Amino acid sequence: MNAANPPTDAPALPPDTVAELLERGRALTTPALRAAVAGLAAPMDTVAAYHFGWIDAQGQPADGDSGKAVRPALAVLSVEAAGADPEAGVPGAVAVELVHNFSLLHDDLMDGDEQRRHRDTVWKVHGPAQAILVGDALFALAGEIILRDATAAAARAARLLATASRRLIDGQAQDIAFEHRERVSLGECLEMEGNKTGALLACASAIGAVLAGADETVSGPLHVYGEHLGLAFQAVDDLLGIWGDPRATGKATWSDLRQRKKSLPVVAALSAENAAAERLTALLMADAKKSREEFEDFDEAEFATRAALVEEAGGRRWTAEEARRQHDAALTAVRDARLPAETRRRLEALADFVVVRQR
Questions:
Q1: 10: nearest Cα among 336, 323, 223, 230
Q2: What's the CATH number where 99 sits?
Q3: How far from 168 is each of 9, 130, 137, 203, CA to CA, in Å?
Q4: Is 33 a domain residue?
Q5: Enclosing H/E stretch for 281
Q6: CA–CA separation, 44 vs 146, rounded Å?
Q7: What share of the chain is helix, strand, coil (3-state, %, to 5)?
Q8: pLDDT digits (tens, 9 = 90+) for 283-331
Q9: Using CA atoms, how far apart are residues 90 and 94, in angstroms rounded to an integer?
Q10: Which of 20, 79, 208, 253 sits a CA distance of 20 to 30 A from 246?
């Protein structure tokens, strides 16, 4: 099994189909996203453009990595599930992308992350104040875009986005609080990750259908699908956060361990009843008493020891299995829903991609 990934016993993916779905979402969303960002006051427009990878730190055009575009792809698919044209989902896709990137800008600053997508983060290049301001601007812009059309469907979509945003912020607050606690239960960890990741993916999966005027029989299963997909997505991210290849993730080795995150592999390992869990508990309790500076002076071998204990205690295996459980629950949500067969097949392909992705 690949070092960071759950078992890959799912049916073989059609990579071209998934790549085309992601590219279609990106192609439909990017022009509207660029236009929205260009309307921000200077220098926020330039700082946001750097964050999205459209320019480099010197302001020159760049072809940076702007992410996998899973959320735009889901928003476009959800509008098709309601029988409308893909373009009708663009406002929802743009709004969700803006909220997602608002969270990234603030999270990078709060977590002290210096790298994202193989480049220095915004706070590192432009300073903490600009990271905060641009994040706030993207958040406000998301609501403005979704409500440009004064319709009942737009109001319903705005409520959906607002609820997802509030949950996302709740999840980040929980994540930070957990770093300073000795014990976090698996239930608490899953609740945090459902808020931090599941809520916005659920919103992306349903917002296009809502904008198209679909009723709850269509938007409801899509929302449930996205919620489970988000938990699968985060479980894989948690594996990558410890065992991912820095050349692929763009983050330092043992990234989540360096930040003392209570991610799923760590919490699952600490919840186990075995000798490795006891040794890991003792180490992490001692770590918690160290200052950030002392902790950052650890050498690679010390982080490697902690990662090995997480794996020995069963945290890695449990998280890989949880990713599969959430993947299966996502597919169950749409399998019997009133959706076009082609849309259902594409949603299944995207779910497979999320669980077996390499980065």
A1: 323
A2: 1.10.600.10
A3: 31, 21, 17, 11
A4: yes
A5: helix 275-288
A6: 21
A7: 75, 0, 25
A8: 998 888 887 777 777 788 989 999 999 999 999 999 999 999 999 999 9
A9: 6
A10: 20
